[in-house]
Amino acid sequence: MNTIEQDIEKYLNGEMTKEETTVFLKKIDVDPDAKRMLELYQEMDTVYDEKNWELIDRNTRYKKVEHYESFLKSDSGKTVSEAILKAEQSYFEEPHPSKIKQIFLYAGAIAAVFVAGLFLVNQFNKNVNGDQLYAEYKNWDVLPSLTLRDGGDDLTNIEKLFRDKRYEESLALLQKYVSEKDKEVNPQLLLYIGVTQLELNQNEAAIGSFTKLLNSNTLDVPKAHWYLALCYLKLNDLEKAKSELNLLVRSNISFQKNKAKELLEKLDE
Q1: Whole-angstrom Cα distance, residue 93 to residue 76?
Q2: 184-206: per-residue pLDDT in tens?
Q3: How far apart are CA 223 and CA 202, in angstroms?
Q4: Cβ-proximal residues to 132 (8 Å cutoff; 6+ apart), any chain
Q5: Which of 22, 28, 174, 263, by CA, is between 20 and 30 Å from 226?
Q6: Could you report the per-residue pLDDT of 228-238, keeping only the tens digit for each?
Q7: pTM: predicted TM-score of the whole model, two decimal places
Q8: Calpha distance 19→17 (Å, rounded)
Q9: Three-state secondary structure along the chain?
Q10: Distance CA 265, CA 269 (A)
Q11: Domain ranges (residues) in the chain
Q12: Superfamily for 131-267?
């Protein structure tokens, strides 16, 4: 006589006749425990691919689920997955268990990866999303006005395009202006160039611009730490962002110092 587990396995595998399916579903309808067991097996049967051991994509957007998903797609997550798969393959070389038992083994493996992922997320980025912090703390209103330092039409037009968020046009004119008229590159122009590159997702180029400012011999050097921190937040390189913020806090200027302290507290939560 078949057990409920065997019946569920046959049902999930499509091995029942029409008559057997009718009898099985009637049995499930009157047995709450069997119904819950079937629902569990159906759910677990959809979250793994027994050939590739991959979680299916879902639309769930909860923060911790996103962290698990990121971990599973990372090199560390893949290493854990591969180790579990090897152990599973070794186990299955012996007498083959039923598919239901395989599901439970896969469920345990998935849970192990989730636990490992949660641990690493908590240890290394503590639920901090650098890109979100970048969006929260970027504030281009603090940039100095180019019009005030030069009455020329070129810089006035460049700043207007920037304020209108026409970044590609603004950057093209900035670079043209620098190549033709400002060989030393004024620090204010470097700030505009770097920020515009950030807005255009030219992140590495932005880092280069702010590093150039950092290496200049001007009073604006410490400001470069704030903008470099924003670059690293956007890239989700939190350790480098913290390093730049700490350098700004220890500097002798007040520019964004309170914001830097506030950000450091959030990154250390």
Answers
A1: 26
A2: 668 889 999 999 999 999 999 99
A3: 20
A4: none
A5: 174
A6: 999 999 999 99
A7: 0.53
A8: 5
A9: CCCHHHHHHHHHCCCCCHHHHHHHHHHHHCCHHHHHHHHHHHHHHHCCCCCCCCCCCCCCCCHHHHHHHHHHHCHHHHHHHHHHHHHHHHHHCCCCCCHHHHHHHHHHHHHHHHHHHHHHHHHHCCCCCHHHHHHHHCCHHHCCCHHHHCCCHHHHHHHHHHHCCCHHHHHHHHHHHHHHHCCCCCHHHHHHHHHHHHHCCCHHHHHHHHHHHHCCCCCCCCHHHHHHHHHHHHCCCHHHHHHHHHHHHCCCCCCCHHHHHHHHHHHCC
A10: 6
A11: 4-124, 131-267
A12: Tetratricopeptide repeat domain (1.25.40.10)
Residues in the chain: 269
Show the tokens assigned to 237: 């390189």
Q: What does the block give as tokens for 4?
A: 């409920």
Residue with tokens 């968020």: 165
